[in-house]
Amino acid sequence: MKFETQGIRIKDRSKNVVSIELNDILKEVYGGGQYCWSIYELQMNVYHGVDFEPLKLEEEVLASKHGKRISWEALSAFGNDVNQFCDLILMGSKNKSPIKWEKQTPDRYESVDVYIEMFDCCYWEVFSKDHDFINRLAHKFKDIELLAPDFREKKKS
Question: What is the sign of the dihedral through the CA atoms of 39, 42, 48 and 52?
Answer without folding.
Answer: positive
